[in-house]
Design brief:
765 residues; mainly alpha; 4 domains; two-stranded antiparallel ribbon; 31 helices; 5 strands; Naa35_N; TPR_NAA35; cytoplasm; NAA35-like_N
Length: 765
Amino acid sequence: MADDAEFAQMDDDWLDITALVREGARSLGSGEMIKPDSLSLLDAMTSVQVMDPRLDMGMLTTADLAEIALWDIDRPLTLSDTLWVANRLFCCEMTWHNSASLLQTIYTCNYYTDNLPTTIGSPTTGNRERDLVLYPLVVATGLCCRRVWDEYLRENVYSEEDVMLGSTVVKFFDNRFSLPDALGLLDVAQAYLETQEGVEADMLAAHVSMRRRWLRVLSSLFAEYLSEDPSALDRSMDELEALRQEHNAYRSTYSDHIGCAGAGVPGVFDVKCMRKFPSLAPIKPRDLLALGEAHAAMASLVSGLLLVRTMLGLESVESLVHFFQGVSRQGDLLPFVRSLLVSVFAGDGLVLLAQPVSEFVRRAISELGGHVGAGERVDLFCMEAARMLVDWFRTLCQNAPRQRRIALKYVAGWDSLQAEAEQLDIWIYSQHASEAEASDPNCNPFWFSSWVYHMKLVLMGGGLMTGVRLDVYLDYEFPMVFCYAAQIFEAHQLHLSRMLGMTSPMQPIDDRLWTRRRVSDTESKEQLERWLAIVAAQKDLATALWLVSHACERLGLFRAPWAKSKKSQLALAVWQKQETPSAQEARFALRFRAFSRLNSPTPLSFANWAGTREQLDEHAIGDLFTHAARVLADAKAAMDQSRRRFGPGSEAFRDLYYVVVANSVALAKLPADVVGSPALAATGSQASVFREALLNEAVADAAGDVATRAKAKRDKKKRAARSDLAKSAREWQAHVDRLVSSGGLKVAWSTAAERHPDWPLFTFT
């Protein structure tokens, strides 16, 4: 125990409980401990720290005990009371969908932890609002949560990162009520509320109607049911669309009344119910969503579930790639939606409920004009490639940090798969070496390795650019990130151009490869052209942002963390150490270590990166902005010409086009006097020398380097040279500071959160 002097030095937010613990310990004998009855021996043995949630349940105050004592399951309820409980329970449900635990949300409602009476749905009791309205809503909500829990048990989402999954199986009334039972109870509630008057009755009737639709949707929208009855998809989507309309009408009609029902029913919700379920104890505290936030979460949930119909309607692997990449960029998708997309996409050896997983890669290669033959070796390769492709699509449905982490790990696997595909292509070519077509250069376009290389480059580009969305990169790292991205997209563009030149008429293909219809030769060529248009735009965009970020870094607008402070000698010494070539090379190797061991494309080495940077430094900084604007203008013109190849649902092209136009407009806002300023007239090399001179001068001043100054006095030439360089550096820095302080050149960046957050949008003022 700490003494009073130690506690006196602590922050005021800490509460001294020494006396309380000492007094409590006096009442315990040797080997005794304070624990609730629900804490098992296993929980106690596996709790290795004092603040483990299973041991630290929180202290019940007198007010808590008084609130708990007010719980009475037989308490009569008015319509206003019933509406308040229904709204609070709805907030609990939506908070759970937002990654909270059951213990912080649903289980706080005592109706789920107490034994419900047999009077549910009975009109003969004197508590009709409770028996005919509230109980049916409680039962139906429990069945909805049970359905969502069953989806979580598929392990498409991860415990604690996505939603708190406890070790105890959730039963919700021990499965006493089936789906027909719950729907019947809701019908009884609807009939009773139609006989009542008042806004509370109308709002409760809307609650019942939306709950009925929501229960029907969740009861039919899962993989096993859809595979047995494909027509269930249309029915569930119709119900979901109707639910969205009803929910929007509810929010619009009762906007002035939402949250105004009653002052609360005491005792119904026990916020400290953690002591009852120690094995489900959450790691972090979570507050309930407000009622307005809960309704917004419901709207987001419904919109997300509508993506299932979009996914099942896609007809090509190309569209699936763009679909899942779009899903990966939607940071507001709730865990249940992401899990359901994975379950419906691939399960029980099928893709999209119809196509065998083993045929998925055959279809993907065939879509790009490739010829996929038969044979055991080909079948084994297709099975392995399909597994990797399906796993990648599943990964794109995870949260953003895991997407990037796993994608960078997958790159090495795809590199190995590419080597296997090359060997397979060579083996296939050798089987036809004696035939007449062996002399035809189109006989062996290396379709397997070409497709794998294409997918690997898609994975590399996505993994690299996802770091922008996640704020992995600091501003000063943008030049090397976009330089590397430009190299990847350029390699991808060249590869797609080669594939486009190797296309040939398709051979007869098994109908099992297509879930909707065949893809014709013309469509295969158009698909390659669409890929080529997107990758070419990505390359131009990365090149332009590379020029812009390099210019900003040379101007000192994008500073590294160690270059933001000049107040101490230690900070300046750290700055000098971090600016050495060896430190820069170490940072480069750490940032791109996932790509450094790949066989292709040739990894960008630090020496090559330094060489490209030196080439840029030969140009004036203002010219970099001008050239970047020209590159973006050419990219926009090329995308305008390619737009006819993309249909109205091509979000990938549309979102990329938005980023290109937004950055082009931002560069156009740079005034001519700013671009022609002496600050921007300097080359990158001069700016680098100026910054180094200013740093050395600051270090010398901070260290009081008398010896260096005395030596400079004895050497007039050195003194003059140093004085001229320092003077020029100070003048250049003054021009830069003047531009920034006057508002002529302020550079910031953000991401297009609703469009394409993997790319930055620069703003200049």
